[in-house]
């Protein structure tokens, strides 16, 4: 298949459109041309190898747009890597026929203090020696040529992650399988002003949405909420050194996290206003104040 066709299958624009400020932000999630990808984390670099393919597999990448590269595997499959500005990555395997391989091995190199395991939702967690969440891979996912879901799962085998994809009827190919690796829970953290005082603002990243809905933590939804309250808040603290100057700001943040659990109207944007008063009992009536108490 042509690079244009592969780009269409994996949902990226073949035409270069990246802005210079985005280009810098992809550097800690490298779509490399040496058949390895690297995610830089606070605990060190996590490196995954692209599945090996056959001896005829291409050794160098073909670019498809600004954030993506592809490798012809020489076995009726194509491997692609897309690096996003939020430092998440997608590593697609495009299966072109029923006779092509349907099992893909990603060899993993981890920092000394980091371990990986399969979680209850079928994704992969990377944690440090204190069991702090470092990064993760969303539960296995695949779809056929019509967009229908195809059964897929991960196994951790030694230092490798193996993805298995079910076979489908011949007219349902190509099938696209999509490991999604991420670390940042929030994007676009910025400071503004409301009622004469600071506001702290940000949006849940695509990876953060996976974690919040249970795909990024052992124990599912509840653990995902815990990760957002802990690791997510640390991202805000790093961006805003004075964010803990008033209890109300943290209370509003935790209210937004809880809102998803309660089924309240949810948007990906958080606006935390320091001018709002402290409210130690905010959790009693979130359905009334929607995290915007007076």
UniProtKB/TrEMBL annotation:
InterPro entries: DUF2599. Pfam families: DUF2599. Residues 16-33 have a biased composition (Basic and acidic residues). Residues 12-33 are annotated as: Disordered. This is Uncharacterized protein. It comes from Corynebacterium epidermidicanis.
């Amino acid at each position: 298949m042509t690079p244009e066709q592969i780009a269409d299958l994996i949902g990226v624009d073949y035409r270069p459109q990246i802005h210079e400020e985005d280009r810098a932000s992809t550097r800690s999630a490298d779509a490399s041309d040496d058949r390895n990808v690297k995610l830089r984390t606070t605990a060190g670099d996590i490196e995954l190898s692209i599945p090996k393919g056959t001896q005829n597999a291409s050794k160098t990448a073909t670019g498809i747009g600004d954030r993506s590269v592809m490798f012809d595997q020489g076995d009726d499959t194509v491997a692609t890597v897309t690096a996003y500005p939020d430092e998440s990555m997608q590593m697609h395997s495009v299966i072109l026929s029923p006779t092509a391989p349907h099992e893909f091995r990603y060899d993993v190199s981890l920092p000394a203090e980091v371990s990986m395991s399969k979680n209850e939702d079928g994704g992969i967690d990377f944690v440090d020696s204190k069991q702090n969440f470092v990064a993760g891979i969303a539960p296995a996912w695949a779809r056929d040529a019509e967009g229908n879901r195809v059964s897929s799962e991960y196994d951790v085998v030694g230092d490798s992650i193996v993805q298995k994809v079910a076979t489908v009827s011949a007219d349902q190919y190509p099938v696209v399988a999509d490991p999604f690796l991420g670390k940042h829970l929030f994007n676009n953290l910025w400071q503004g002003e409301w009622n004469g005082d600071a506001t702290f603002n940000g949006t849940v990243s695509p990876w953060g949405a996976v974690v919040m809905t249970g795909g990024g933590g052992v124990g599912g939804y509840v653990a995902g909420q815990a990760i957002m309250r802990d690791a997510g808040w640390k991202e805000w603290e790093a961006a805003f050194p004075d964010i803990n100057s008033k209890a109300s700001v943290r209370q509003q943040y935790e209210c937004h996290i809880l809102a998803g659990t309660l089924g309240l109207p949810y948007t990906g944007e958080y606006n935390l206003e320091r001018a709002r008063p402290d409210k130690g009992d905010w959790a009693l009536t979130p359905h009334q104040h929607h995290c915007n108490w007076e």
